[in-house]
Amino acid sequence: MIKILTFFDCYNYGAYLQAYALHKFLIDNGLENEFINYRTKKSIKNELANELKPGAKNFVLYFKLLGKVLSFKLHQRKLKKTKPIHVSTALKNETFDKVVIGSDQIWCYTQEWGGIDTTYFSDNIEAETIISYAASLGPDNYNKQHPRSILRLMKRFNHVSVRDYNTLHFAKLARPDDKKGPHLVLDPTLIYDFKNEIKTPTAKNYIVFYSDKLEPSAEVIATIKKVAKERNLQIISLGKSYDWCDKNIIALSPFLWMGYMKNAAMIVTCMFHGLLFSVKFQREFMMFLNAHRKNKCLDFLNRIGLEDRVIEKPKDVVNLFNSSIDYKPVDSFLKTEMEYSQNFLISTLTDEYK
Length: 354
Prior knowledge:
alpha/beta; 39% helix; 11 helices
């Protein structure tokens, strides 16, 4: 039985869907697997408090956020997983054969809800085979001074794959003797199609706004609203509440979230998985970024040749609304990368890797 260690029990659509995609892709290829249900109590508590915080002075919003949390918990229950483990050292009592660590920004040790957790670098995990799949440092730069314990643990992996160049450089520095890697692969959401899971919304003619708190400048927001009005498009925020949006849908399931993304006339986002699902569903999109987002988002935009979809100033909004994306070269790139990513994952878990 293959075990997966990643973020699967968060209240974040991208985190859940990348975990779900990896889980289902392996099953579809005859590789039974389950999640290592590991997370510290501090991490669980901190994330829940942060998720509910916007509703502290607004009971209606609080109950909508609570509904969102409950929806995620319901979907998390559907995933096959081990018994809960809250202390890293308890993993030493477990027997593992093959372990996949990743995807998502599991190596972003400065941002984790519970503080630095070396478990995601294989600490206390004993297995015949340990690989990383599409792991990421997130906003952490590869050339900073990293804890020695983390650099030491990186050498324990049998095979390493990452999802962005920043993390690739980090892995090369940490594993100078790795002659066959590290490998650059696609996020799991791009190697699984979700065709049986997507729920179609009833809404029509709308713009999706998807963010986790970050907002564009007031001038950019005003321009988005102006263009939306001219085109008779409703602005719908997914998962969070923003008073300038026409509608805020807070408590929607991950699969309905995908449906809204797939059927949007335009997607405005700062989120990495907002970008990936825009591309996956061949939607028109635009991104607003800050320093925290640039590593992972600009990296992928550059790889697919769509770096011009970033909003730098208000007039960019109008230009991006008036332009359309040619997805032919993007599809060609993704087809090649998907084959490479799928082959890496299957071969390393079936001992066929050469």
